[in-house]
Design a protein that fits this description.
Length: about 80
């Protein structure tokens, strides 16, 4: 997916797609989408959380923890 990181509508769209992938338990798609978003500079708690969940499922626990910490830092009061 191509999107402009300065465009809030595009960012909302990618976050929505990532959320849908997580909801469908499609961690491969969630990883690919979140990785692309992070590479393009998107900084959103759902993106970091999805990336962390995918990494965790791959056994990459230290990297997952770093993503979970980023998600928490961006939204410390969000359950």
């Amino acid at each position: 997916m191509v999107f402009d990181t300065g465009n809030k509508n595009a960012e909302a769209q990618i976050v929505s797609e990532i959320s849908a992938a997580i909801g469908a338990n499609n961690l491969t798609r969630a990883y690919n989408l979140s990785n692309a978003a992070l590479t393009r500079g998107v900084r959103h708690r759902i993106v970091f959380n999805a990336h962390g969940l995918a990494l965790q499922s791959m056994g990459r626990h230290q990297e997952a923890l770093a993503d979970f910490e980023q998600a928490l830092a961006l939204s410390p009061n969000d359950p």
